[in-house]
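Protocol step 4 of 6: structure prediction from sequence.
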Amino acid sequence: MSDRLPGSVLFCCTMNSVRSPMAEGMLKALYPKQVFVDSVGVRQQKVDPLAVEVMDEIGIDISKHRSKTFDDLEDSSFDLIVSLSPEAQHTAVDMTRTMACDVEFWNTFDPSIVEGTREQRLAAFREVRDTLQKRIRERFSRRPVMPG
């Protein structure tokens, strides 16, 4: 793991309505000025209210997030692209064929497909939130370099 933070990170998933907005919000909260963070989807759909609710529980507001697609990106130059769904991974790999950019695939469950009671659905969203939060902290935490 590199001690250096990427200067810019793009999170992508299928709809840019749950997983990638959550991840974007978390990394922005962790490094508000040090890292440029954005998110997109292969297709776009309005941010899911349950995603907004579970993020609010940890003090991160994604209610103003506006869903967008890869085609909506003003700048496609990123140091790192993290794809959270297989469909987004394919699109990210295609997009980066001609650029120097790292692409990581973090296959993340889509909680919006869970059916059941409101509590069961919220539990699925919380599980995804907590999984992403742990992964983001592990991947982007800066560790001091230990003398050899």
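Step 5 (inspection) to follow. The chain is about 35% helix and 15% strand.
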